[in-house]
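Here is a complete protein record:
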Amino acid sequence: MIDKQLKQAISDYLLWLASEGYSPRTCEGYRQLLNNFRLFITRKSIPWDEIFTLDTLKAFKKEKNLKYVPALRGLSRYLFEQKKISQPIQRQRVPLPEIYEQYLLYYEKSREVHHGQIVSIRRLLSAFNDHLEGLEINLPNIKIEHIDSFLANFTVNFASGTCRLCRSFLRGFLKYLYQERKILPKDLAPLVVGAPLFAQAKPPKFLRGQEVQKLFSTLKLSTPTHIRTYAMVHLAYYMGLRSKEISEIRLEDICFKKKELTLRERKGNNPTILPVPGKSIKAIAAYVLNARPKSHYRNLFLSFKSPYKPISPGTVIHYISKAIKHSGLFSSPYSLRHTYAQSLLITGATIYEIKEMLGHQNIQSTQRYLHIDIELMRKVLFDEEL
């Protein structure tokens, strides 16, 4: 009975893979491994509710001398989504002390962040816990010296951006211990700082008019990838959208007739409806009609490799960066957002209006994007043209 049930499950899964556009080679590789797994389950007489567990997976990998078995994890996720099993195969994870686990749960619920960020925070907190255990120090007794020594060792080979992210993660945990749990007698979060970065006094980078023209003049439309990049650059420059916001746009969020875009999940849970410039609407329409792959996914931007899944924010950054580099400009995708904010300021928008268009929670975030426009100042005061 179990053998027949598992055989049918494998057959359904392989058909699903084919329908999603997986290559015949991948499907054949999965078929062979899953049939070997079925024979293993039958020979061991493992009941259905114990098939898709970490222990069974380990036993199968050990017997077959395998290191990775994505086919089994994929099958378990498929059956879980089909409500055939109670949960997919869980990844092995060493539990942290209760206070750490409670914080991770609190952070995930309160921030509604991506699972990948929770994994990164867990990795940092696990190392922090090991560090404190090595020093034989309990959480209520930690001092900033202990935190500094941990960060110095943990981030020694990290880039400056990653170091800032680690400090941010740790500050969140310390703030939780002090404000929510009353475990720390003093708030140590404000003391977790990096070395002074005097260059931060420089205003944010934005593109001048001639640089914008250069960027758009070098954009190509000869391949589906070029057409997709063209649409993404339009959204980043003409609407100031973040890479995450671009990646999460769905087809039903766009009203071509009204030229409007609904952003349902902005940073800080601040949904809004934005007007879309005519050029951007045309760029999106060109992508949808001529380049977007056919898929059951409703996300606007999809990958061009089967099974044509939604792209990630990192993919958006990659292709916009590539377009900027190709144009010969030394800038970043985020400079397009800065340019958008600067353009709004030049056209007479108030800082409060700019705040709403950018989707900021507080006015201080908006102020960092804006600075005195030297070109406008010279034109008004000295009647000069740059």
Notes: The beta strands are 254-255, 260-263, 272-275. The mean pLDDT is 84. The chain has 17 helices and three strands. Residues 109 and 188 are 23 Å apart (CA to CA).
